[in-house]
Specification:
Helices cover 30% and strands 32% of the residues. By secondary structure, the protein is α+β, with helices and mostly antiparallel strands. A hairpin with a 4-residue loop joins strand 2 (9-19) and strand 3 (24-34). Helix 1 (62-69) crosses helix 2 and helix 3 packs across helix 4 (131-137). The longest helix is centred in the middle third of the chain and has 20 residues, at 73-92. 14% of the residues are buried. InterPro entries: CCD81 (IPR026295), CCDC81_HU_dom_2 (IPR040673). One of its GO terms (cellular component) is microtubule organizing center. It comes from Motacilla alba.
Length: 138
């Protein structure tokens, strides 16, 4: 399943088949498909990640987020939208702040390359059988 964060991109978990000389592995690994205003990314390079069409993508659930922090859903939506807008303005102004997602990873820009780096604990939480293979792939 994937989650669309409007103005930023989509987080998803995708299965990936890896063939080794001894056996075949199918691991679940997190991916992030960037979907920002291209004017923010003029000088930046970012990896092209395509989420397969068979992955179900849902919009960010503001009501569920509001239940985790006791704020009204409309306020949560406004905070998310303003944060993404601020981040895009910073990128446009050639500032390169890191955007941290708790328990998931960090969207950062190094040497003009914008990429999502997932926390090892996030990857390990998704793939319990072949954790090392998933960590190496991600």
């Amino acid at each position: 399943q994937g989650v669309l964060v409007p103005g930023l991109g989509t987080f998803a978990v995708v299965p990936e088949q890896i063939n080794s000389t001894e056996e075949m592995y199918v691991v679940r690994r997190p991916v992030f498909q960037l979907d920002m205003d291209m004017s923010c990314l003029r000088e930046l390079v970012f990896p092209t990640v395509m989420i397969p069409g068979d992955i179900v993508t849902m919009p960010l659930d503001y009501w569920w987020l509001s239940q985790t922090n006791s704020l009204p859903p409309d306020m949560v939506r406004g905070c998310v939208e303003e944060t993404i807008l601020l981040y895009s303005f910073q990128l446009r102004d050639r500032q390169r702040p890191a955007f941290a997602f708790e328990n998931i990873g960090i969207l950062s820009c190094q040497d003009n390359v914008l990429c999502m780096q997932f926390h090892c604990s996030c990857i390990a939480g998704l793939e319990s059988q072949d954790t090392w293979v998933a960590l190496l792939l991600t």
